[in-house]
Amino acid sequence: MKKQITITLDPKSVDEAIKELERYKAELKEKCTRLTQLLIEKGIENVEYIILNTSYLDTGELLSGLRRDAAAAISTTATGKIVGYISVSSDYAVYVEFGTGVIGSSSPHDLASELGYVYGKSENGWWYPTDEADPNPTKFEAEDGKLIAHTKGQPAKSFMYDTALYLRDIFFETAKEVFG
Question: Which residue of 23, 108, 120, 174 shows the fewest CB atoms closer than 10 Å?
């Protein structure tokens, strides 16, 4: 989108140029907000697709915890930057994203070491509290009557990181949709 403002060196022309620049600034801000919203919408669709089409041991919490209101996920910083985000409010989303235990360490997340994520190293695994919806076949009722299940971890299933890469890949194409 090419914008040209013509100006002469008289006060009226300068005033008109300033008004035109203000209109252009508002138009750019509106388009940047629209671009951010479109990218968030496409990102949400991608996260949903990955969760629904990947073999997660998911009880539905990941998908139900996905924030779907793209407009509410946009804010403007004090410096005027337009920021958007995609979030999942599940307590275990980070464990799905990065993986866990010795199984996760054998297929780690691409950013695990860079971000300081540490995998458990117990070859014996561990027991965790669970419920009937958990498909883990090792679950049983403990002495206190609560269900527990055994695991050695899970591989990284980087649904958010993969979505970030996808958004990077479609950024210019999406920007062309907005800016023409």
Answer: 23
Predicted TM-score (pTM) of the model is 0.82
The answer to whether residues 98 and 104 touch, using CB atoms and an 8 Å cutoff, is: yes
**Does residue 95 sit within a domain?**
no
Alpha carbon distance 98, 112 (integer Å): 7
Whether 88 and 94 have beta carbons less than 8 Å apart is answered as no
Number of CB atoms found within 10 A of residue 57's CB: 14
* Claim to verify: residue 115 and residue 171 sit in the same structural domain: no
**8 A C-beta contact, residue 109 and residue 156:** yes
Q: Are 76 and 134 in contact (CB under 8 A)?
A: no
CA pair distance 62, 59, nearest whole angstrom: 8
**Same structural domain, 171 and 114:** no
Q: How many separate helices (H) and strands (E) can be counted in the chain?
A: 6, 7
Report whether 58 contacts 159 (CB < 8 A).
Answer: no
pLDDT tens digit string along 42-85? 999 999 999 888 866 566 888 889 998 888 899 999 999 999 99
